[in-house]
Predict the structure.
Amino acid sequence: MQSATKVIFDRAVAATILVVLAPVFLGCMILTSGAEGEPTFASTTRIGRRGVRFQLLSFKMPPEQRLGVLLSKLGMDHLPELINVLRGDMSMVGPRPAADRPGIAEVEVPVDCRPGITGLWALEPRADISGPEAAMLDRRYVDSWSLARDIRILYRTVVAVRYGP
């Protein structure tokens, strides 16, 4: 699964999105920066490919603010994850990092692929998916990976974020 094609595709898509959405990215940075020089980014430790830990980036957004709720609903809080893709920590499509889904043992997460910003698990209604079911979707994705499937998953993710599930 970790073929050169996937890595090149992931990085090209991430770079393109960052360039196209640069004004949005900068706007989010300005809107989420603290008055006293607080960091714009939040990071949490996640488990990546082959069990290597990395810092998953996101915008620091107080959920109690209407702006934070709106940006989170639109998925803008996840834009910094594109930096994780460029750094090689993540893929555009793949299993979600293990620490993100309580109830899934680390051994259940496919170990030889990079975690993804989106994946089959993201296309399921949130209330209808449990830890073991998400792990099953991750395994199915890894076992049947194709570039065409990644493109379909990315398209469906954009549609779901834009128009709702």
Notes: Residues 4-20 form the longest helix (17 residues). The chain has a mean pLDDT of 81. Strands lie at 41-47, 53-59, 91-93, 116-118.
